[in-house]
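Margin note from the TA: students keep mixing up input and output lines. Inputs are the sequences; the output is the structure of the whole complex. Example:
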Amino acid sequence: GNSVTQMEGPVTLSEEAFLTINCTYTATGYPSLFWYVQYPGEGLQLLLKATKADDKGSNKGFEATYRKETTSFHLEKGSVQVSDSAVYFCALSNQAGTALIFGKGTTLSVSS
Amino acid sequence: ETGVTQTPRHLVMGMTNKKSLKCEQHLGHNAMYWYKQSAKKPLELMFVYNFKEQTENNSVPSRFSPECPNSSHLFLHLHTLQPEDSALYLCASSQERGPNQPQHFGDGTRLSIL
């Protein structure tokens, strides 16, 4: 079946550090891949997406590249800010259009 | 400012109570979803509605009963819940139900069962 695996958190970084949050997936066919972010006390917000192999999604300085050969969609940011502290969820949607399948989430904490 | 509004934000209820969660979206979307978010577990899809018709019930116990009177409103009726049902319940919507459709989430209702 379809599934998403994220690196365990929490991830603790200093401001301006480089961020990588690993995400790998298992799916039949060619899923669309998403990163969502959840700030404290709020719902999830779409951060970026990629719909086919080698696509790069980007938003607010975050990037992720759809790697079919390694079934991965790692999230990166070159210089994190305190305001980036949140929980990040990797998700996939398979070709059948079933609602999103999420990973467990990775908590990021950035200190000044 | 989210286009998906959930009420109430917090709810405490006993196991014998009956209550309802409400979700309203102002985005003109046609698909709506209920998710359950528990600590240290992935988000669990509960129900999917597409053009007011329920298209998925992800083996949810009958003590949870959804209702979708129109494409803008979604309810989750609760009765005789168990302590393990305490969680954050998130509503989401998308333009359509499809593989490339991003979902827009509300801020959730934090439910506590006494």
